[in-house]
Amino acid sequence: MKNNLKFLYLLILLWPWIQNVHAQTVLTLDKSLEIARDKSPDILKSTYNLEGNRKQLEAQQAALRSKFSLSITPLQFNRTRSFNNFFSTWNTSEETSTFGTFRISQPIKFTDGTITLVNRFAYQDSFSEFQDVTNTSYSNNLYIQLDQPVFTYNRTKLQLQELELNLENSQLSHAMQLLNLEKNVTQNFYTVYQNQNSLQIAREEFSNQQISYDITKNKVEAGLLAKEELYQAELNLATSRSTVQNQEVALENAKDAFKRIIGLSLFEDITVLANIALNPVEIDLNKAIDHGLEKRMELRQREISIEKSQFDLIRTNAQNEFKGNISVSMGLIGDNERWRDVYESPTKNPSVAVTFDIPLWDWGEKKARMAASRANMEVSKIDLGDQRNDIIITIRQVYRSLSNLETQIEIARQNVKNAELTYDINLERYRNGDLTSMDLNLFQNQLSEKKSALSNALINYKLELLNLKIQTLWDFEIQQPVLEETSDQ
Predict the structure, then answer these.
(1) pTM of whole model > 0.85?
(2) Coiled coil where (predicted)?
(3) Least CB-packed of 145, 168, 302, 489 within 10 Å?
């Protein structure tokens, strides 16, 4: 019974720690990327921006369809008093009316014109004091009208093309944001892993320092070493303990930054599980460059920028331009005291109007604006060429870095083996009294540095391989293009 109470008491004390361990979320790189694609603030903003551009294009396409509208005025009453110069008398008149207008308007995409069908039905009751006459009548005006701009550019078509380019640009930006997210998540994932690894190395070093301290303490107590050796061992142990605490702080800070990027709650406890084993990948440099130049989305964005500069050139050229408008309408209007007989004797009401805007002198404004627009277009073309060169240079740099890292990893592995053997040999020498604690501490530090260097080299290889994937849009690990993956998300 007493033992059971002790166990229960111990369980109550350890329960918060047990809960914390149980609630800890283990994240792999793939799982982290999956969470980030759903919850990352940057991706959410990019998704909303993409949706906004898509809806703007849908709205413009809907605006090219027929518009139906109906306006109704149930009651309109006017009373006026005016002077009739011909009869030299004042006259009071009253008018009460009710009318409604039904309109169908259809934009014409290929000509930038508009064709409209209008029907206006009205009832009117009027009274004039001059001749004491009251008139009641119904009227209906039905006509079709065409308005067509001439000698100018097609504004409807240009606006639609611009919105299509905006949508394409936002799709490219969204795909690039997904790639950047993969890069940022991977970098921060491995930063957390590096800090976990550094903490583990620091704890191993602390454990070794504890062993060294115990050996030194036993030898000092046995009178085999001077007491100063114990002081140095205590200092080494305290320094090692401080290193462990510093690594714990660095790990927690790295976790917070990582959780923010992928969109996890800052209060969720996580640990990462990484596979940093080296799997050398064969890379064809020429294929990497060709695929990057063909598929890199930044190049298409530069081309879109040039196309939009051409649109600006068209708009600039349209300032102070000679242009005109043709308006033609044809219809029937009828009126009668009875609404059924409105078209008993209809009247045709054709209408034609041709207008021109003729600029006379603009003091060179249009010429200067055209020159500025052409200069901007040339800048965009130069940027496109520079972007191509940057892509080639960057791919070459990553390729060289990967080759170099493979060599560095092999060297780092050999260094770790040598450092482990050296530490084991010198630990035995220390036990035998042939080495001071300060010398042993140097070998311990060397072992920790070599382990960290190997881990960092392996992670750097993984990151550079991902960088090559982003730069070329080709995954050399699985020999598949990346563009289809990003465009489907």
Answers:
(1) no
(2) 395-422
(3) 489
Query: Are both 344 and 385 inside the same structural domain?
Result: no
What's the N-to-C CA distance of the chain in angstroms?
61
Cα separation, 173 vs 55, in Å, equals: 17
The DSSP 8-state label assigned to residue 338 in this structure reads S
Q: Are 84 and 37 members of one domain?
A: no
| Residue 349 near residue 332 (C-beta atoms within 8 A) | yes
Domain limits at 193?
24-55+160-308+374-487
